[in-house]
Amino acid sequence: MPQSRIAIFPGSFDPPTLGHLDIIQRAAAMFDTLVVGLLDNPSKHPMLSTVDRVALLRKVAAPFGNVTVESYHGLLVDFARSRQASVIVRGIRGGADLDYERQMADTNRHMHPGLDTVLLTPSPAVAHISSTLVRQIANLGGSVRGLVPEAVEAALTARAHAGRTQQV
Ligand code: PNS
Question: Would you please indicate which residues are annotated as catalytic (active-site) residues?
Fold first, then answer.
């Protein structure tokens, strides 16, 4: 029987966007199992907690039967080894992403020669979306509709309301 192909889609997902969802959908169709790996790095002071981001990603990934969501600490290559993954999946939106992704892919392969990185381009309809810009919009009180899945929009709206209540 051919070996099952396990891929990891790692990231900060702060917050998960429709661009991430697009990559999850494409990768879920390519591999037997896709593990969405969320780097748990509190020193980055994320907008949403690790627990919230994992819960949101699980909601977003629920329609895909072969996708699981987990957080990880430390090196991505160690997480990949622990899950018997042979592939890392990352999305690239354009040239600006490519240099960084290539460097990361080559460094990860240096540390773990059996591990290849597959770079997927998202649909042009979502290729402009970045978590950094979504964070800016959300922090400045703008609407993130159409940039993030509905569950994430609801979480960001609730967070904004909680912030407003605290200010009064
Ligand atoms: O969504 P991001 O922030 O671009 O994802 C970057 C991430 C989390 C994939 C990368 O920073 C990572 O894997 N960090 C874990 C530590 C590690 O393995 N560093 C060496 C990577 S070359």
Answer: 20, 44, 93, 131
